Structure formats: C-alpha cells, structure tokens
Amino acid sequence: MDFHSALQYAAFVVVATALVKPLGGYLARVFSRQPSWLDRICSPIERLIYRLARVDPDREMGFREYAGCFVLFGLSGTLVLYATLRLQHFLPFFFPQYQTTPLTPDLAMNTAISFSTTTTWQAYAGESTMSYFSQIVGLGVQNFLAGASGLAAGIAFIRGCARQRCESLGNFWVDLTRSLLWVLLPGALLGAVLLVGQGVPMNFHPYTEATTLEGAKQVIPQGPVAAQQITETLGTNGGGFFNVNAAHPYENPTPLANLLLMLSIVLVPAALTNTFGRMVRQPRQGWMLYAVMLVLFAAGLVVTHLAEYRGNPAFRNVDQAYSRRQAGGNMEGKETRFGVAGSVLTVTVTSNTSTGSTNAQDDSYRPIGGMAPLTNMLLGEVVFGGLGGGLYGIVLIAVVTVFLTGLMVGRTPEYLGKRIGPPENKMIMLYTLAAPVTILTLTAIAVGTKWGLAGLTINGGPHGFTAMLLAYASSFTNNGQTFASLSANTVFYNVTTAIAMMVGRFALAIPALALASLFARQPNTPPTAGTLKTDSISFGLTLTATILIVGGLSYFPALTLGPILEHLR
C-alpha cells in the first residue's frame, strides 16, 4: 500500500472517530429533548409544525402505533413520489428536448419505492429522465423524509433498550421532526455550501449546448446538483443526479469533495453508537460496538485495496505499478482523479451503509474486489449502516452473540440487564432470517427464469450470477448499488427489486422495534457474577466472529458460485 493511499484511509478513520463522541452527545441531547445549541432556531419551527399537524409532543406511542406510523409514513411518501414522477411532464422545470427517456409505470413504481426506502436504486439515467422538479421536490424531499424516519426508528429502538417497566417507545412524529430540524437540515446546509465551494453546481439553468473541437454538439446538464448530492449522502440514501453518479465531475469534482461526501455518509451512523451508550447509561457498550464496526470496516478496506492495487493479472505485459506518472492498479472503470484509493474508500463506505452513491464502476472491480462490498451488504450492513438501521442491526447481532455464548458457558442470556427469553428470540430470528430468505429466493428465481436471465446482456457465468446476487442484496439492504452489466430496467427486475426493498425496509424495522418494546417492559436486572460482560474486548471479538459466521453460513455457497469461482477461473 502506497503512502498516499494509507494517508487518505487514515485521515478518514481519524476524522470519523474524532467526531463520534461530540456528535453522539449532540444526538442524545436532541432526542432526549435536552437543551442544545440549535434550540433557539429550531424550537419555534417545531412548535409551529406540531400546531399545524395537531401533534401532541408529550403523548408517547407503544410499539404497534409507532411501527404503524413508520410504515404508513413510508407508504404515503411512495404514493406521492409515484404521482410526481408520472406527472412530471406537466410540472415545472421539465425540458422535453432533454428528458427523453420515458418513465414507464413499473419504472416509476420502482423508483418511488426506491427513494422512500432510502435504497435509491436507479434503473434510469438521471439527466435524461428526471426534471429539476422531480429531482428536488420528488427525490430530494424523500431523501430527507426517508432518512429522518429511519433515524427516528433507530432512536426509538435505543429508547426501548434504555427504558424499564415502560410500554412506550416515544412519539414517531416528534422523533421525525427533530431528525429533520436538528440533524439533517443543518447538516445539508453546511454540506451543500462546502460542495459548492468545491465546484459542485447549484442552479436551475437550462442545459448548456457546446461545440467540441471536432465540431460536434455536446449537451452539458446543469441543475441543483449540490442540494441533491448532500441529501443523498447525509441521509444514507445514495443514488445520483447524473447517470454515472459520483464519478461525474459535477457531482464529485475533487478528492476533497470525495472525502467530504464519504464523511457525511458515516458520521451520524457512527455517532449513534455513542448515543446508544449514553442513553442506556453504559458508554462502554457504545464504544465496543464502534470498535467492532471499525475492525470490520478496516478489513473490508484492506481486502478491496489489495485486490484492486495488484491490477489485472490478464495484462501481464502492461505496467500496472503505482508511480508518479500513473495511479497504478486496476483502473478500469475508475476515475483518474481518484485512483484506486479514492475509489476503494468510496465503495467500502457506501457498501457498509445504505448508500448506493459510487464514484467508480462496481462491475469493473476484480472478483475479490467486488466480493468485498457484496459481503458488506450480505452481512446486513452492520458496519455503520443506514440511519438507525445500522445501529439496531449490530445490536440484534450482539443479542444473538449473548444468547449463543450463554448456551456455551451456561450463563443466563442477558443484554443490558434485559433477559432474552422466547418472545425476544422470536423477534431476533425473524430479523435474522429475513435477509437470506429474501435475497437467496429472489436470486434463485432470477437465475431460474427466462425473465431474470434476459437481464444478462453482457456478462454470463459467475460474473452474471454475482450481478444478480448483488442486485437483490443491494435492494434488500436499501443500498442501491449495482453491476451495470445487468439490464435491470425490465418489468421483472423493477418488480422483484421493489419487493426486496420493501421487505428490507419494513421486515427489519418492525421486529427491531418489537424487540425494543419487549426490552422496555422488563425491569433492569442487576449484574451478578454470572452475568456476561458485553462491553469487553473478548465480547467484541466474539461479536465480530458471530457476524462473520452467521453471514458465512447464510451466503458462502452463493459467493462460491459467483465471485470466488470467477477468481479461481
């Protein structure tokens, strides 16, 4: 690994880690309704919203009501966005001479579900399909609302783990409002200014027509790019204003802009570990979870970097070594201004979170280099993860670890002073089995039907299988990344990936909230000599092993048929 790559990776980890504690403390104060430095600005707006929406901020909700609001809010956003997309040619800022790609009913449905579940799976070219109105009022608004509702669910989960002898998890509308006003909007305003300073456009100008040196006509898209770009990363949504996503120089013009975007993705999910530790009054628990995340993140980063840095062995007679004159490594599908390091950092960050924004072509990675981000998704994106989802994902795996460890050493399975009995185990199993059942079943259907195989227009064999597996893993984990060689804009893929998105969004959040409710009803059991310490280094290592073992048992055969077989061939 060259010095510049190591320096970039180290800078990212150091900055992200340094901000975990202050941002985690800020989030804990915001959602505990304690004084914070934005209260003077946000509190009057909050009171106005409650008055207009007739929300009683002091009324709390039980599990069923909270989960029902979460689901209905997501479905309502889907319907509004679907209507916006279907009617965009009647709405402002639609340029028929440039928006030439039609939005079919199935594609509009898939896109609406995609953005309302933070998946932002895009089976279309942004600049030739979406109007400015659709980008900002449709997609941009959902980037905010879907991210905020996910953060609200995560906070409700933490609140349930922290409470005792309580039937409620908080108020969904209060958590949603505070997520927007105190977290996402200030972060987006600051991030957009920084991106504009790096050269990201923010305008509503018509597309620019230019004449090249050869005399040909070239259309240069414009638009409110900065606003869309920061909301999609801050809300762990992903996607892109343009077809080539963050590889486009308008979306991601400089290495510094790339680093800022990557930090905006992980800061809130990483800080939630500290928020968790503060709210359950056991700060070491939060740091243990963050340490596990960091170890798994570093492992994926190193594996992907080594796979891409060594270059393509098929080009034996080509100099692929790093030097002052070239970036080195496998540069197929990568931007020269980012090189291997900037591309690897981005694909590792985005595949560990529910963020499909990429600055390189995933399809062009080496088999092991492509397997690493795929594995990150298959593990449930427990490393940072999406807003809220990543936190309750790793906590549920920690509960599984407690249960398995308790069986081996004969200790009562407890986590945070809460006993893990049959009702809790049922919710944990529902959560754990949802991913492999959905991803592997849909992949098998795609492989075994002519409609699924029709999407393999370029690559077949192991690489084609990997493309299908990644499509459904990405959809289920609400990530949105894809291998471009899979032609996904068909009725079959638009419907099946939408099913995976919905299951991944709601079939995980509902059991997690149910488990939090079961924990909230219990009294805290004082620790004894027989209580397993869940904030120790040994437990962190056991948790890491459990994550890898559970993922391996579920997906190793599928990985063998895809990237592993391709590597061996």
Question: What this model shows, in words?
Answer:
This protein has helices at 3-18, 20-31, 39-53, 63-86, 105-116, 126-129, 132-162, 172-197, 225-234, 255-279, 283-309, 339-351, 367-378, 389-409, 422-448, 450-453, 461-476, 491-521, 537-568, and strands spanning 61-62, 168-170, 208-211, 217-220, 414-415, 418-419. The chain is mostly helical. Helices cover 63% and strands 3% of the residues. The longest helix has 32 residues, at 537-568. The protein is globular and about 80 Å long. The strands form 3 sheets. The chain has a two-stranded antiparallel sheet with strand order 1-2. Strands 3-4 form a two-stranded antiparallel ribbon. The protein starts with a helix and ends with a helix. A hairpin with a 2-residue loop joins β5 (414-415) and β6 (418-419). It is built from 19 helices and 6 strands. It has 2 domains: 3-209 and 219-376, no CATH class; 390-568, no CATH class.
Q: Specify the overall morphology.
A: globular
Largest sheet: 2 strands, antiparallel
How helix-rich are the residues, as a percent range?
55-70%
Main sheet: strand order:
1-2
Query: How many β-strand stretches?
Result: 6
User: What quaternary form is this?
Assistant: single chain
Q: Which regions are unreliable across 5 or more consecutive residues at pLDDT < 50? A: none
Ends apart, CA distance between termini: 26 Å
DSSP strand content: under 5%
Rounded to the nearest angstrom, the radius of gyration is 23 Å
- Domain count: 2
Backbone structural class: mainly alpha
Number of DSSP helices? Answer: 19
**SSE order in H/E notation?**
HHHEHHHHEHEEHHHHHHEEHHHHH
Mean pLDDT: 89
